[in-house]
Amino acid sequence: MSDAQVIPLNPEREPGDGKERASGFPGEQAVAGALRFMRRRLEGSYDVDDFGFDRELTHDVLVPAMRPLYEKWFRVEVHGIENVPAEGGALIVANHSGTVALDSLMTQVALADHHPAHRELRMLGADLVFATPFLGTLARRAGHTLACNPDAERLLESGELVGVWPEGFKGTGKLYTERYRLQRFGRGGFVSAALRTGRPIIPTSIVGAEEIYPILADAKLVARMLGVPYFPLTPTFTWLGPLGMIPLPSKWHIEFGEPIATDVFTEGAADDPMLMFNLTDQVRETIQHTLYKLLMARRSVFF
Amino acid sequence: MARVVLVTGVSRYLGGRLARLLGQHPDVERVIGVDVIPPPSDIGAAEFVRADIRNPVIAKVIKAAAVDTVVHMNVIATPVHAGGRSAMKEINVIGTMQLLAACQRAASVERLVVKSSATVYGVSSKDPAMFTEDMEAVRLPRSGFAKDSVEVESYVRGFARRRPDVAVSMLRFANIMGPGIDTPMTRYFSLPVVPTVMGFDGRLQLTHEDDALAAMDAATWGDAPGTYNVGGAGVLMLSQAIAMSGRLNFPLPTPFASAARDLVRRLGYIDFTSEQIEHLKYGRGIDASRIRDRLGFAAQYSTMETFESFLQSHPMGRVLPWEPRHDRDTAGSEPVGSVTEIGGARE
Q1: Would the pTM count as exceeding 0.90?
Q2: Is position B192 within any domain?
Q3: Is residue B236 part of a domain?
Q4: Among the residues of B206-253, which ranges form H helices?
Q5: How many domains does chain B have?
Q6: For chains A and B, what is the number of CB pairs under 8 angstroms?
Q7: A76-104, pLDDT tens digit by residue?
Q8: B290 Ramachandran zone, left/alpha/beta (phi>0; psi -120 to 50)
């Protein structure tokens, strides 16, 4: 199994954990609630939206399952949550790191738990995610969809909060020596989605995710054989077997920056490549500077 | 203005019902239904003419009756009915070519409405969540009904270029289901143990058969020709649909899934193409807002309601032991004793 396919293991193992925890709870109500939930699942009486987002599963199982990781393991500190609007569409653009895309999941928990409006984050993922068994269907249920402009625009237009990590695999698969150095921002498709829908861009900086699985080397040959973008060798992976999949308990900070308005441009601005490049650079620079600021302020990687 | 309407494929379920429906319209003078065999059910005021659209004789029918509206329903998805895949392809592709050739020569033809399918968008993991009419397939279909639909659409577009005076409409339907229709999809969900592909769960969008007819009717009389998606609101996950039906979901690893497909195919029960396996894996959603905005047509049944209506009219029996609670507003409970009706799949 490659690292790209390791991603599902956490959320996937944990739905079961969540249920067991609920049914093992001394309160009778919790048990009854869990049984009702199981019954609804077995009967298929629940709803998913057009993208396959399963609200109930995400709220009741997936986010609670990630919460201990968020609160106890990474002890995430959130800054600037007031920059995320309480309603309406907005595009969260963040740096990507950490070998396994835990940073997007932690951002999802941050917004669900710590935003006053408990906002749901709809994330845009790489096509490889959706072609991978188990991971793809789980990702859809958790609110991810394919990173493409039609989907991004459809979500933004319907007032959803959309998260995008434009560095993609270049961000998660970079070596530890390149930590906190932003990679190229794809083709900047996310800017055109925000421009076309007139929704603000919120540059977001995540510190701490770089240290969870420090990539010392990339076994390119193995990656090619497995058909994955990279195959990481970390201080613990693959040497310690499954134990090597435990992320290091780094201390995280997520800072939501000031929104960049996109409804101030004229009609057809999305077709102006120069404006697009400038906006993309502006977002990238903002994230990079915030990263430096957060890094300067942090006392240690783990505290 | 009284209209003379020609409907193809009237001996099949949807074609027959559409001919009857069109015959009730006040503006209609004549409805001529054509097919190679007489319709098994009543087609109402419509007249039946035995003609094969694969044969140039169809041109004579159009000319003799001075047909002004042609409704092409004879693009079929079930090779079992057609007598095999090659016959099906011939009916779909050669039939459409002949019909369009006849229409091109007939000066009386003013309007053409074609039943197409959302399968023209193909299926892949790189698909957007919802296709609009302007989008193209990420991965073009390569086999079966889906490929036929792509070819039929390209012939229709060619016809529209050569006869710009004809108002051409194509309706791309999400999988049609309901109480009466028999498609590979309805047969699939009637299996006591439903094989799926392990690790994948497609988003299914369905069109109720009544909505399909209403949409064809709206496109036939409406003033806004064009290509339209038609489908019920919302999607169902495949696993969710199987759970609702009370059947047993049997996930198979990908290689075994293909083997299982070959088996049911050889048994002649369901013709499943590799295209349909991909559909079960990834599913597809289509955006049906254009037909609502331009023709004022909105599907009465959501995808969920369509599937419930299919389940209620197919007393298939539940393999799983519990009964569903109908807390949704679906009146009518599971018929008593239905458990015995699935042929000994469960005692």
Answers
A1: no
A2: no
A3: no
A4: 209-221, 238-245
A5: 1
A6: 88
A7: 999 999 999 999 999 999 999 988 889 99
A8: alpha
Whether residues B243 and A41 touch (CB distance < 8 A) is answered with yes
Where are any strands of DSSP class E within chain B? 3-8, 28-35, 47-50, 69-72, 111-117, 167-173, 175-177, 193-197, 203-204, 206-208, 227-230, 236-237, 248-252
N residues, chain A? 303
Alpha-carbon distance A29 to B191, whole Å? 38
Contacts of A152 in chain B (CB under 8 A): none
Per-position b or e across A248-273, b if 16+ CB within 10 A of its CB: bbbbbbbbbbebbebeeeeeebbeee
Q: Which value does ipTM take for this structure? A: 0.85
What the block records as the tokens of B318 is: 């539940």
Domain boundaries, chain A: 3-297
d(CA B159, CA B133): 19
Per-residue pLDDT at B339:
34
The position carrying tokens 């020709």 is B225
- Under an 8 A CB cutoff, do A134 and B199 touch? yes
**Nearest CA among A1, A7, A59, A51 for reference residue A212:** A7
**Is residue B226 assigned to a domain?**
yes
Domain boundaries, position B134: 3-173+208-231
The distance between the two most distant Cα atoms of chain A, rounded to a whole number of Å, is: 61
Closest CB to B285: pick one of A47, A50, A132: A50
Mind listing the pLDDT tens digit for each residue in B28-78? 999 999 999 999 988 988 999 998 888 888 999 999 999 999 999 998 887
Q: Number of H helices and number of E strands within chain B?
A: 13, 13
Residue in chain A closest to B123 (alpha carbons) equals A131
**What's the CATH code of the domain at B163?**
3.40.50.720
Task: Say whether B220 sits in a helix, a strand or coil.
Answer: helix
In the three-class reduction of DSSP (H, G, I as helix; E, B as strand; rest coil), residue A208 is classed as coil
CB B129 to CB A42 under 8 A?
no
Would you list which residues of chain B are within 8 Å, Cβ to Cβ, of chain A?
125-130, 132, 135, 198-201, 203, 234-237, 239-244, 254, 282-283, 285, 304, 320, 322, 324-325, 327-328
The partner residue sitting opposite A137, judged by closest CB among B129, B199, B241, is B199
Q: Is residue B179 part of a domain?
A: no
Residue with tokens 């269907």: A137
Q: Phi first, then psi: what are they for B8, rounded to 5°?
A: -95, 155
B70 strand-pairing partners? B6, B112
Q: Which CATH class is domain A3-297?
A: alpha beta
